[in-house]
Every structure is written in C-alpha cells, then in structure tokens.
Write a structure and sequence with these properties.
With about 450 residues, the protein is α+β, with helices and mostly antiparallel strands. Helices cover about 30% and strands about 25% of the residues. It has a domain at about 215-400: FAD-linked oxidases, C-terminal domain (Vanillyl-alcohol Oxidase, Chain A, domain 3, 3-Layer(aba) Sandwich). The chain has helices at about 30-45, 100-105, 125-130, 135-140, 170-180, 185-190, 225-235, 270-275, 285-295, 320-325, 325-340, 380-395, 410-425, 435-445; strands at about 25, 50, 70-75, 80-85, 90, 110, 145-155, 160-165, 165-170, 195-205, 205, 215-220, 240-250, 260-265, 280-285, 305-310, 315, 340-355, 360-375, 400. The radius of gyration is 22 Å and the shape is globular. The structure holds flavin-adenine dinucleotide.
Length: about 450
C-alpha cells in the first residue's frame, strides 16, 4: 500500500477551501485487504475516513469537510473482476469509470447503461454513492437500478455484502440487525460515503441495442410549454433515449442557442406520436452531435466578465412544478438576483428519473444551474443563497437538489442514514450528517 504526501481533497464542487493540515493520510489501496489496513490506521489514530473516487461530485462530500481525517482513494481499484454475458453482469472494483467498463464490454457486444456526462472521470463507487445518471435515466434508470450488489468495508473492518433484498455479513449478529431494519442497496445509493468504503460492485449489463433513432430539436415560447411537453412524454411513457432541455443561457454563451429548447433522440417508429406532442425540427446525425456537444460545453464556458459557479446543482421539477416550470424558474431567478447572483445557464436531463429520500422513483426534469458570482461574495453568503434556494424549492414542490446531490437537505434520507450508522458506526464522512454540516461547507466556499 502506498501512503502519498499529495493531498486529494480537490474536487469539482464550489467547496474547495480545505484545511490540508487536517488530512492526516492519503491511501490508494488496490484490494479489500488494503482498504481494511488503511481503516485500521484511521481507527488507531482516532481519525474519520473519507472515501474518494474521481472527485467529480458537486456536493462537497468527497472533501471530508474539516475533520481530522484519512482519505482513501479508489483510483487504484479499477479492475474488472468477472463478467457474464449470459447472466448479464460484470463484477468490478469501485474505481473504474463507466467509459472504461464500456471499452471492456464493446468487443463482446455488451454495454453498461449508466452514463452521466462525467462518465470519463466519475467512478462507479462514486456514482452509486451519489446515485447518478445521465440524459437517459428516463430509459435506463439511475445507478441504483443497474447495481445488483455491492461489497462494503465498515469503520471497524467488518464487511457487508448488500443487494436489493438485504445484507450478508461476516458478523452474523450485525447481519441480523441490519436485515431487521430492511437495509438494502437503496440505502447505499446516495449515501455519499457515510456508511463505509465500497470495494466491489456487481453491475447489470445488456446487449448493445441497435435501433434507428430520430434526433430533433424543439424550441418553445416559454418554459411552461416545455414543462407541459415533458409532462406529456412522461404520461405517455414516450421512448425518449436522450433528452436535454436548455431553459436559459446568458447572452455571453448563447451563440446559436435559443432557449427554452429540448434536444431529443427517440426510435423512428415513434415519429408520428412525437409529432403529436412537440413541434420538433429533425436533426441529422452531425447536427444532433453538435447540439449534444453544445450542451456539454455550456457549463464549462465563462462569461465575458466574471466567473461562473455551480451554485445549485440539480433542481428536480416534477408534477405541478414541471407544469409551471416558467413560473417556478422566475421565482428561482428572482431569488438569485436578490442575493446578488446573475443566472448564467440552466440545462439538464428531461424526461428524467430520480429517487426521493424515501426511495420512491419520480419523473420530471433535473436542471443544473450555473451563476455568475460577484467578486466580493463570502463563502457564507454563497451558502446562505443555496439554503434560501432549498427553502424556496421545498415550498414549491421542487425536489431541492435531488438527493443524489445533496443528502443533507433531504431529512428522510438523513434520518435513515443515521439509523443505519447507529448500528454500523459513525466513522465515515461524519461531517455530512452533523449539525455543523452547512457551516463547514460555508467555510469551504
Ligand atoms: C462536468 C460534470 C458533469 C457531471 N454530469 C453529471 C450527470 O450527468 N449526472 C450526474 O448524476 N452527475 C453528474 N456529475 C456529478 C458527478 O459526476 C457525480 O456526482 C459522480 O457520481 C461522482 O463520482 P466520483 O467518482 O467523482 O465520486 P467523488 O466525487 O470522488 O465522491 C462522491 C461521493 O461518493 C463517495 N465515494 C466515492 N467513492 C466511494 C467508495 N468507493 N465507497 C464509498 N463512498 C465513495 C465520496 O465520499 C463522496 O461522498 C457531473 C460532474 C461534473 C464535474
């Protein structure tokens, strides 16, 4: 095992001001045994443990906050362990990315169907811990829908194997207790590294689907019309394979965009029904690829003056809030302006699927957002803005930061994680479930 002097707290979120002196060790294990050895080192020194994958998470969870802690990276655990084409699964270590899995599967004509935009850097351990998914979650589900089982090492070195039905452990008493409260893969999904270190995953794979798709772009007068169109697709269970809505883009990055708009890809045999729902312009392969690329580049651009931040990643509009999308967005934007921020871009997956804190699936539009930040904003002011948005969302039927992004604003999920940690121990990412979580995050903006 290698202990490196380098610090790995860096991450893609706006929470990046770390007190590096609090990071007491960085481990890059290659096997479960090495993970257990690293955790033993943490226990004997009274340190908490922060698991880290690709660092692409946007909630600040993989930083570990300000605790005296040990970081365990999964980046050297990236092996494929086994694969069964017949039974439709692949066993992998947690540090492999979806892109690498698909490179491995391509010659077999198979595919792993979870595709967040960050699929080239995000690890499967991290994606399950945030329950991520891409523009196709509507069709392929989120990460939990493709995870058959996981192995996880706890803070005291005990090991759990968890699937959709329950838990197995090398400690029979622990196994009984966890099964009594019905622990399953749903609890690991979106747990943000608070339970243990995932060392292995069995993931569903399927044959590569060969179908003729039609790409198209639809422009709308305003977002309520877009919200109604997405609602109709959800009601009709439209077979949309890729759906990306861009609801606003600052003049500095508009180019040939005219939001609100929807970029979609659907099977050719659905053409007439899709025409019934939206007035879309068909795009040939090249045009479609260009539109998808614009969507990917949008969050990476900066305004001509100032810099942009990802203040609030993941507004979940569903039900009534989707039908009144424009009205709700106007409220959000007014709040942002009140707090001195300039809305820069809003774009995201729709129709989309995600899970609420009580593990029920919901369907709608997940919007990511970018804002232009004034230079003089303090970290606490930024976090206060985020918390004001959380309140506004809760009051208006918008799932604030769908739980795969923001577990600490989802009281149900938080309670459940606390219940499980009451049984298994508190050593992983304790700051996330502490009362001081928001203060800690504010100090890191
Ligand atoms: C450009 C960009 C595009 C993105 N697009 C999408 C998108 O389309 N859809 C989407 O859902 N998300 C998206 N994200 C968010 C991000 O990619 C996801 O949150 C990702 O799932 C995190 O994976 P990671 O390996 O980077 O994990 P990290 O950021 O390193 O960690 C995330 C969480 O998982 C925990 N964790 C990591 N590994 C383990 C492990 N082995 N055991 C236990 N806990 C662990 C960490 O403690 C932390 O709490 C995007 C991010 C960026 C920067």
């Amino acid at each position: 095992m290698r202990i490196r002097d380098v610090v790995i707290g860096a991450n893609a979120s706006m929470y990046y001001k770390l007190n590096f002196r609090k990071i007491k060790g960085v481990y890059y294990p290659r096997s479960e045994q090495e993970v257990i050895a690293a955790i033993k080192h943490a226990i004997s020194n009274g340190l908490s443990v922060t698991p880290k994958g690709g660092g692409s998470g946007l909630s600040g969870a993989c930083t570990g906050g300000n605790d005296e802690r040990l970081m365990i990276s999964s980046l050297q655990m990236k092996e494929v362990l086994a694969v069964s084409k017949d039974q439709g699964y692949i066993d992998v270590q947690p540090g492999i990315t979806p892109d690498k899995i698909n490179e491995f599967l391509a010659p077999m004509g198979m595919r792993f169907y979870v595709a967040p935009s960050s699929r080239d850097i995000a690890t499967v351990g991290g994606i399950l811990s945030t329950d991520g998914g891409g523009n196709d979650t509507w069709f392929n589900g989120t990460m939990r829908d493709s995870t058959i089982r996981v192995k996880m090492v706890l803070y005291d070195g005990r090991v759990l194997t968890i699937d959709t039905k329950g838990v197995k452990s090398n400690d029979p008493e622990l196994e009984t207790e966890l099964n009594k409260i019905g622990m399953s893969i749903h609890d690991v999904a979106s747990s943000h590294g608070t339970l243990g270190f995932i060392t292995e995953l069995r993931l569903s794979i399927g044959p590569q689907i060969k179908e003729t798709l039609i790409g198209g772009i639809a422009e709308f007068e305003e977002c309520n019309a877009l919200g109604r169109a997405l609602t109709e697709m959800i009601n009709r269970k439209s077979p949309v394979r890729y759906g990306e809505a861009i609801t606003s883009a600052h003049l500095d990055v508009r180019e040939d965009l005219n939001p609100p708009l929807l970029i979609i890809d659907f099977p050719a045999n659905y053409e007439s029904e899709m025409k019934d729902i939206i007035d879309y312009k068909p795009l040939d392969k090249q045009e479609l690829a260009k539109m998808k690329d614009i969507r990917l580049k949008l969050p990476k651009r900066n305004p001509k003056i100032g810099i942009q931040v990802a203040l609030f990643e993941g507004y979940g509009f569903h039900g009534d809030s989707l039908l009144h999308l424009q009205d709700r967005l106007d409220m959000v934007n007014a709040l942002l302006v009140d707090h001195g921020m300039t809305p820069f871009a809003k774009y995201g997956h729709g129709p989309s699927k995600w899970y609420l804190g009580n593990n029920t699936p919901t369907y709608g539009l997940i919007l990511h957002s970018r804002e232009i930040k004034p230079e003089d904003k303090s970290g606490q002011e930024m976090l206060d803005t985020v918390l004001a948005i959380v309140n506004l969302c809760e009051a208006n039927g918008i799932t604030p930061k769908p739980e795969h992004k923001w577990p600490y604003s989802d009281e149900l999920k938080k309670k459940r994680l606390e219940e499980i940690r009451g049984i298994i121990g508190q050593g992983f990412n304790p700051f996330l479930l502490s009362k001081e979580c928001n203060e800690v995050l504010g100090s890191m903006v």
